[in-house]
Amino acid sequence: MLHYIYCLPFCAVLISAFIALTVWGDLSVRCSGSVWRTGNCVLLIASAAVVIYTTLLSRTSGSYEVILTPFAALTAARRQQPELYREMLMNVFLFFPLGLTLSNALPRKWHRWGRIALTTLVGCILSAGIEYAQYRYALGMAEVDDVICNTLGAFVGALSLVASYFFERAIQHTIDTEKEVKNGMSSIETKAERLYGIDFLKIISMLMVVLLHVLNHGGILEALDSFSAQYAGGHLLRCLAICAVDVYVMISGYLYVNKEFRLRNIIRLWLTVLFYSAMIPLLLKIAGEEIELKTVISGFFPILRSQYWFFTQYFALFFMMPVLNRLIQNRRLAGKTILVLILLCSVLPVFSLGNDLFKTGYGYSFLWFAVLYLCGGYVREYRVSDEMSAKVAAIGYVCCTLCMWLLEVGTYAATNHIFGDARYTEIFVCYTSPLVIGSAFFLLVLFSKFKFKSKIVASVIPTVSALTFGVYLIHDNSSVREKFILGKFAKYAELPCATLVLRILLLVLAIFTICALIEYCRTVLFRCLNINKCSEKIEKLIGKAVQKITSTWERKE
Question: Which three-class secondary structure state does DSSP give residue 69?
Answer without folding.
Answer: coil
